[in-house]
Specification:
alpha/beta, Rossmann fold, five-stranded parallel beta sheet
């Protein structure tokens, strides 16, 4: 179990590289999350800081410019995008100079052209590969071109298909909208095959960051368990879940083994605070501060609430994770799923 094997030091202690997600960590909608910019600028004074984004519609410079407008000290080279990771995957199959059909926007085309590939939008150009990512303008005709290019033709080998990411949804001002994973699924249905994926939670995204910054001693900061935490764990690095974005206490309590974070914090200010140690007694009580939780078979039993809802959530997650039991088979007190951090 990865969670909470700590000795009271800060989450930043000994870390050479911070990898931060954007939406839900830095900003929510058009506005910065309160305190996030100040905390990230402070963290950048102590260690290298990079930003990882699965959003394939913007270039690294466009992302950096947006972050600078919010007040962050950041340059384009501090941004790792899913198209950048996708190009590393593509390079294993076709060499620069090859023709690539693109479904998506400038975030993809700029990276392909930097790497020496030729971009096309038509299957009639007989592309050597297809790269697919999200952009707001992507519609049926773009998905159809990908399907035509990827179709199985007798006597012709299947061409490589690389997708920037698998995100089923993207958060927008009005709510959650279909993401790239949904659009990839439409093409998959038409061609009966799957692409290789590059963005979080896949390893190429993290390997791209490690290669650029020269270290794997990193901490992933995210708000989504299925991308940020899962990807960080798969890459062999520590993970920190901040309760300012998508996944809430309910999702944390239900996290499968591959999505269980090392740290749970309410805000990025806790990056600089000693992280409370989880102690497990001989009778199976998981204690964080004054909060105590234990498992009684399939029942999650609160022994003591303590004076911190966050420590209670941490203790409950520790007890549930250690049990190895699936959340759907457990009886969980309502107080544990109460969201104090909205």
């Amino acid at each position: 179990m990865a969670l909470f094997r700590k000795d009271g030091v800060t989450p930043l202690a000994g870390v050479e590289l911070l990898l931060a997600d954007l939406d839900g960590v830095v900003y929510r909608g058009p506005d910065a999350i309160p305190g996030a910019v100040e905390c990230l600028n402070r963290a950048a004074n102590e260690t290298r800081l990079a930003y990882l984004t699965n959003n394939a519609s913007r270039t690294d410079e466009q992302v950096a410019e947006h972050l600078r407008e919010l007040g962050l000290r950041v340059a384009a080279q501090d941004i790792v995008t899913s198209p950048q990771a996708a190009v590393t995957v593509l390079a294993k199959h076709v060499q620069p100079g090859a023709k690539v059909l693109v479904v998506g926007g400038e975030g993809i085309t700029v990276e392909l052209e930097k790497a020496g590939y030729v971009v096309t939008r038509s299957a009639d150009d007989e592309p050597d590969a297809v790269m697919q990512g999200f952009a707001p303008h992507v519609g049926w005709e773009h998905l159809a071109e990908a399907a035509f290019a990827l179709a199985e033709v007798e006597g012709r080998p299947l061409i490589p298909w690389v997708a920037t990411n698998t995100d089923w949804t993207i958060p927008v001002a009005r709510g959650l909208a279909p993401g790239n994973g949904t659009l990839v699924s439409a093409v998959h249905t038409a061609v009966a095959r799957l692409p290789e994926f590059a963005g979080k939670p896949e390893k190429p995204m993290y390997e791209t960051a490690f290669a650029r910054f020269g270290t794997q001693n990193a901490l992933m900061i995210g708000d989504r368990l299925d991308t940020d935490t899962k990807g960080g764990r798969a890459a062999g690095i520590k993970t920190l879940h901040v309760l300012t974005g998508v996944d809430r206490p309910k999702q944390l309590l239900a996290a499968s083994k591959d999505m269980q974070p090392d740290y749970i914090v309410g805000s990025l200010a806790e990056l600089f605070e000693p992280y409370p140690e989880t102690r497990v007694t001989r009778d199976g009580v998981h204690r964080v501060g004054g909060a105590k939780v234990r498992m009684q078979g399939h029942i999650v039993k609160i022994v003591a609430e303590g004076d911190s809802p966050l420590n209670l959530l941490r203790a409950a997650c520790s007890a549930i994770y250690a049990s190895g039991l699936a959340i759907y088979g457990l009886k969980v007190p309502e107080i544990l799923v109460k969201d104090h951090w909205k």
